[in-house]
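Chapter review: from sequence to fold.
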Amino acid sequence: MPFEGASAALETLTGIDVSPKEVQRITEERGLLLDSTLTEEGQLLLRCCKMHHPQAHSSPSSSPSSSPSSSSEGVWAVALDAGRVRYEDGWHDVKAGVVFRAQPICDEQGEGKIVGASTSRQSYIAEVGSMERAGERLAAETCRRGVSSEERVVCLGDGAPSNWAQFEMHFPNRVEVLDWYHAMEHLWAAGNGIFVWARHTGGDKVGEAVGGGVMGGQGRSRHSRLAQRGEA
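The C-alpha cell string follows.
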C-alpha cells in the first residue's frame, strides 16, 4: 500500500492523522529493525546448528530412499531461486526460498507405486541481498523447523550454480534434484540443437527423441511450438 493510502486508511479507521511522510519514516525505520532482528536470529540458529554438527562440504547423496524419514510421511525439502522485482528506484535482484515437507502420492490400485508428490507445511524466506545471505536464511529456517542433522534434505533447484553452491554449503546430507520444468527445458534445448534441420523439414524430431521417450507427452505441444520458433 502506498504511504499516502496508508495515511488515509489510518485516519479513516482510527481518527489519527499521520502524514504520508511520517508513515514512510516509521515504516522504513521499523523495516530496518525487523531485517536486523531476523538476520541476528538466523545467525544464532546457524551457530547452534554448527555446535551440534560441524559443517561438512560432502557430496550429495545418491538417493533419499535410504533415509529413515523417506517413508509415506515424506521427506524435508528446500528450494532456492532468484528473480527480478521492480521497486520504485528500479529493478532489484530478490532471492526466495522455501522449506517444506514432500510426500509421495501412490497409485490408487494399492500396489505402492509412487506416481507423484505433494507438498505441505511450507515456510518461506526472502532476501534482497546476496545469494549467500539467502542461503544462510534458508539454512536457519530449516533449523527453526526442527530438521535434524541425521535427516537427508532434498534440495530442489533450477540448475543455477549459485543455488547448488548454497546447498553444498549448508546441507551436507542432501539429495540434489533438478526441477522437472528446467530439466525438460534443458533436454529440449539439446534436442533442438541436435535436430536443428527438423525446423526446415516440418518434422518434430525433438518431440520424438525427447518427448516420446522421457516426457511421455507431458508439455510436448508447448516445447514443439518453441522449437518451431527457434526458442527452445
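Two observations follow directly from the output. The chain has eight helices and five strands. Confidence is low (pLDDT under 50) at residues 64-70, 213-232.
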